[in-house]
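Hi both,

Apologies for the delay on this - the queue was longer than expected. I finally got the zinc ion-bound model through. Below you'll find the protein sequence and the ligand SMILES exactly as submitted, and right after that the structure tokens for the full complex including the ligand.
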Amino acid sequence: MSVQVSLERMSEKVAAFSKFGALEGGGITRLSLTEPALEARAELKRRCEALGMEVASDDIGNIYATVQGTEDLPRFVMGSHLDSVRSGGNYDGIYGVLSSLEAVETIITEGIPHRHPLTVMVWTNEEGARFEPAMMSSGIVLGKFAKEKMLAVTETGGTVTFGEALAASGWAGDEKNRLNKKDYCAYFEPHIEQGPVLEEEGLEIGVVEGVVGMVNYDIILEGVSSHAGTTPQRYRKDALRAASQVILDLWGKLGALAGDLVFTTGEIHVRPNIHTVVPNYVKFSLDARHRDMAVLAQVVDVIKGLPQEVYGCKLSYEEHWGRNTIEFDAGLLGFVEEATQECGYSYKRMYSGAGHDAQYVSEMLPSVMIFIPSRGGLSHTVVEYSTPEQCAHGANVLLGAVLRADAAL
Ligand SMILES: [Zn+2]
């Protein structure tokens, strides 16, 4: 077997960064650009500089720590985010940063020659838990969101804007340092799976082929409010009764489409939301995800085929937002798969059901992701966990894939 990362060093990294924003009883709250996130950034910088890497940031605080290669070639970049959701875990995002650092640290300390410069990267505010939306900085870099508009976003539940937090952080650097097509040629993002599939199937690695497409609709039912005590049932135009029926009908119809289609109603608004009043208005969300856009087109057909009236209530719908399925780079996928095989790890090719910075980056650079299992499939919770061995496996696959790409590209 080829060179391997250090299990001990990988575990030490995870433990060390788990302290920044640590909650009593486990897990972290490390919202973007808050004190614990700035402590984690400082620690990362200290560690990268100790390895002789040069640390820079761009105008939205994304961090790039680079070790030069032996040739004048564009850089490989690898990483993820270090912010968390409120009461999040010690792996989502930060695992991608720390496994990237461990892979590069192995290359540096073992003196492994590499032609391309190697950059470990941190994306600012991936979660969107403090400043909406999620994947804000990769979205700005890829032109999805206007920077000025994002700088003006006020934190959820507070008064500080993203621009103010960024200025106070000391991490606002030069726009010319942003990830770009000229200076970079490949992007790798290791991540925890955040779902149950790898664990359930007893597999060690997910070779991520892409990110599934999704559609997101709001479905609205409008009835008539009336007194809960004095209105006989037959006179009612109860929007919640109608919505309940529509949700169940949707479950039936969408459940009969492709078996691996996932769909969710996770948000519901009822008006007037008073226990003595028949609801006159309900709006609920419908999120559906599948890799095959033709299946998502069938979902849209089901929505468009809903009756215009249900129990006397008027039904309408609005498309909220959506995304097409993202396919990662076939060449990089090949390097990840070969590296996984060389390490002797069991694996499957799979799609990510969750969004990641890599999906935006893939529009600019050849990109790929590597998944490791999540215990119980749980993420965005304090009990999020992957074993030290699983963490090292992902870093080994990254290391192998980067060295293969370095030889080939
Ligand atoms: Zn993440």
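Main takeaway for now: Residues 213-323 form a domain with the Alpha-Beta Plaits fold (CATH 3.30.70.360).

I'll put the files on the shared drive as well.

H.
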